[in-house]
Design brief:
The protein contains four helices and no strands. The protein has about 90 residues and is mainly α. It is elongated.
């Protein structure tokens, strides 16, 4: 059990870009909800596979999340801002 939990690093997942970590954590949450629903309806194989999928997503995000972000081009994306730079004549700067 300790070995399995050592494969997951929450700090590494939180250091990923929000788009990648948010979608990954949403998928994990959905699989955990599916796990609980399957446990209560006594579908044990579905519950087990849902738990394994959630664990696999966490392992992949914590170990290879940086490489996935680089491959998707999320690391070098400029931060989006709702404010635009204006000059003294209230025209947008490039």
């Amino acid at each position: 059990m300790d070995f399995a939990l050592s494969l997951i690093s929450i700090d590494n997942i939180m250091d990923l870009p929000v788009l990648l970590s948010g979608i990954g954590m949403l998928l994990v949450l959905l699989f955990l909800v599916r796990f609980l629903r399957s446990i209560f309806s006594l579908h044990l194989i579905t519950a087990f596979t849902s738990l394994m999928y959630a664990f696999a997503i966490l392992v992949v995000l914590s170990n290879f999340g940086g490489q996935i972000a680089n491959a998707l081009g999320l690391e070098n994306a400029p931060p989006q801002s709702s404010q635009h730079l204006l000059d003294d004549r209230h025209q947008r700067l490039a």
